[in-house]
Predict the 3D structure of the following.
Amino acid sequence: MSNIIEKFREANSGASPKKLVGMYFELLNKIEEYKREKDFNKMLICCQKSISLLEPLIEQTKKEFGTFDIKSIPAIEIGSNFWAIYGEEDQLLNLKEVVEYFPELEPWKKTIEKAFTMKELASRIYRYVRKNEGCLQKELKKTLEIKDGRLVSNIVYYMELVEKLKRKKIGNTYSLFTK
């Protein structure tokens, strides 16, 4: 038995599955609201709470519809990106444990793998920019020997969003600075 699943079950014991699923959907709205407001700390707290409600969501969905066919789980998709950028490996490991525990969450395994890659690359990018203030974003892929330029752009975008980096437009690229 997974330790994190045991903790979630303990925390949710006593509440009806319908109430827990209702809480899950309330948290979805809060995740989107806090993301819009750029209150990423509150957003990630809601992601954590939402993840603790995945088991009742899976069970209720299968009970009502015969299958778990939900295509998007923002707590995983959004949370994993932000935890990666913040370097929150423990959160990613917990998320990985949850995704691996439930067969219904198989489609999100690649999301978790990508998050660990993002975490490692974000750390490398930050260290490089800190040592080379003003470096150009378009040179990161080559300089750091990263194959996926789109991933580099995505990581830099999130790093700017959470104020780890600052970008300044220079022609067709950006000059990067640490904050």
